[in-house]
Design a protein that fits this description.
The chain is α/β, with parallel strands linked by helices. It has 18 helices and 21 strands. The longest helix has 13 residues.
């Protein structure tokens, strides 16, 4: 319990009678407690903690002040606990440029905004519109409260948006389920490739799918393009993707254009540019995406049926993404669209494809076990083909083929499709294997989920939709409860393989 507390809450010191308490009319309290969510790379995002949950654990601390802004303004920025200028929605430079004559002698611009600026409809950054937020949400909270403070503490978790744009979940919200979709292609021209476009080329009345994170997400989400094209055949369907995600989706025959964004740049200007022309189909489950190379909070949809802390226990990735976007809950076999030119595999003997290294280290089984597995398969007469970024298997057998970093996603898909079996963790290649309807063994290590700073690990996830979700053509190797992936033995994996190939 002590470790739980220390990992999530930070202490400020007791106020002396000579110290100013805050810009707000708050009484003096003994303790200052505040909560900070630190996503990947520790990009700072301010979050208020769950007061009822917290006080239920620590009744003796019921005199704690819950306004962490006060602590920050008077101690955090002085002691270096938090770098103020890294707040994702407050831009100190922007605020100074926009409102310099009015700031006067304030040394903390954020303090000026909290005390005076918001009342004059000043914006803390180009990506939070104070006047818009007040008009849209002020009926839900005390008008005396700063709208920016409400957004950071409460609004983001309720689906409130920081600036004006249209979301599909606001226009159409479905609670139905869809388990089948026809194979459908709106573009039938030979060798169709989705054009890379600029934000200015997005047409009025279109839909733009926003997908922020993993490569596996880009494969799993394919039925959403299909559903939108079937339902709205006269509307253009665009997407905002990272470059490596574009490589996955570039032959999708139901996508009319892709805006490629850079992980090392702020993507919010793109969202603001397209907001006037399109309806954003926001598939972000937990509101976290990569901005400037770091995981940062953008917004949640108002439909919070599936979150990282729940969806692995109940549904697959596609169902979760479609539900939070406001679409019907899709559980459909995905299609991986390829070019018309087929790649011929040069491996003559029956072979098994192995992918060893996921981006999440908790999913990685390790060099020794993958190497032992490879030799066991080679002894059975199979060729072993390793894919991925870097080789993990240590093997000099002539029937071991190291194809890491040598193939495109299209070539890997065809390689898996023509194989006898795929073996690997929950990754983009497992989703490709699902698209190919290939037999697979998933060595499923724990997955870490975040929501509002709460963290949970999942060990029995079913990430794929369609066949793999119902257990067709796949065997999962899960670690025992509360154990890591290394507790899975090579014998366990071989037993699952034998069930599929014998």
């Amino acid at each position: 319990m002590k470790n739980f507390f220390c990992s999530r809450f930070f202490y400020g010191h007791e106020l002396s009678s000579l110290e100013e308490i805050s810009t707000f009319n708050s009484p003096k309290h003994k303790f200052f407690l505040f909560y900070i969510n630190k996503p990947v790379n520790y990009h700072i995002e301010f979050r208020i903690f769950d007061c009822e949950f917290f006080f239920g654990l620590y009744d003796d601390l019921n005199t704690a002040i819950i306004d962490h802004w006060i602590h920050f303004l008077h101690y955090g920025r002085k002691t270096g606990h938090v770098k103020f200028e890294k707040n994702f929605y407050f831009d100190e430079k922007y605020y100074l440029q926009q409102y310099n004559p009015d700031i006067g002698n304030h040394t903390c611009f954020f303090e000026h905004y909290l005390k005076e600026g918001w009342k004059k409809n000043y914006n803390p950054s180009a990506f939070f519109d104070t006047e818009f937020y007040i008009k849209k949400y002020s009926s839900n909270y005390n008008s005396e409260l700063c709208p920016f403070e409400h957004f950071l503490k409460i609004g983001f978790s309720k689906g409130n948006i920081p600036f004006a744009f249209r979301q599909y979940s606001d226009l159409n919200l479905s609670y139905s389920k869809v388990s089948t979709l026809p194979v459908f292609a709106s573009h039938n021209e030979p060798n169709y490739i989705v054009n890379s476009i600029t934000s200015e080329q997005i047409e009025n009345g279109s839909f733009t799918i926003f997908l922020p994170l993993g490569l596996g997400d880009a494969v799993a989400i394919e039925p959403i393009y299909r559903y939108l094209k079937i339902t709205y055949p006269d509307r253009k369907i665009y997407s905002i993707l990272y470059k490596n995600q574009y490589e996955i989706c570039k032959f999708n025959r139901n996508c009319d254009g892709i805006v490629i964004v850079d992980k090392n740049k702020d993507i919010r200007p793109i969202l603001r540019e397209v907001a006037g022309n399109t309806v954003i189909v926001n598939c972000v489950i937990n509101g976290i995406t990569i901005v400037c190379g770091q995981s940062s909070f953008l917004w949640h949809n108002s439909e919070l049926k599936y979150l990282p802390t729940t969806y692995f226990d109940k549904q697959n990735l596609l169902s979760a993404m479609s539900a939070v976007a406001g679409l019907p809950e899709l559980d459909v076999q995905p299609i991986f669209w390829t070019s018309d030119t087929q790649n011929n595999c040069s491996i003559s003997c029956p072979y098994i494809v192995i992918h060893c290294a996921s981006a999440d280290k908790k999913k990685n089984w390790g060099t020794r076990k993958y190497t032992e597995l490879a030799y066991a398969l080679l002894s059975k007469g199979y060729c072993v083909v390793e894919i991925g970024v870097d080789p993990i298997i240590c093997c000099d057998h002539p029937n071991y083929h190291n194809l890491t970093s040598k193939l495109s996603f299209q070539e890997i898909y065809n390689l898996i499709k023509e194989s006898s079996l795929f073996v690997g963790p929950d990754s983009v290649f497992l989703h490709l294997s699902n698209c190919a309807k290939q037999k697979a063994v998933c060595i499923a290590g724990p997955v870490k989920g975040f929501f509002c700073g709460h963290k949970k690990f999942f060990s029995n996830q079913l990430p794929c939709s369609g066949d793999y979700f119902i257990g067709k053509n796949i065997e999962y190797c899960y670690p025992p409860k509360r154990k890591n992936i290394n507790s899975i033995s090579v014998e366990d994996v071989l037993e699952k393989i034998n069930k599929l190939v014998d």
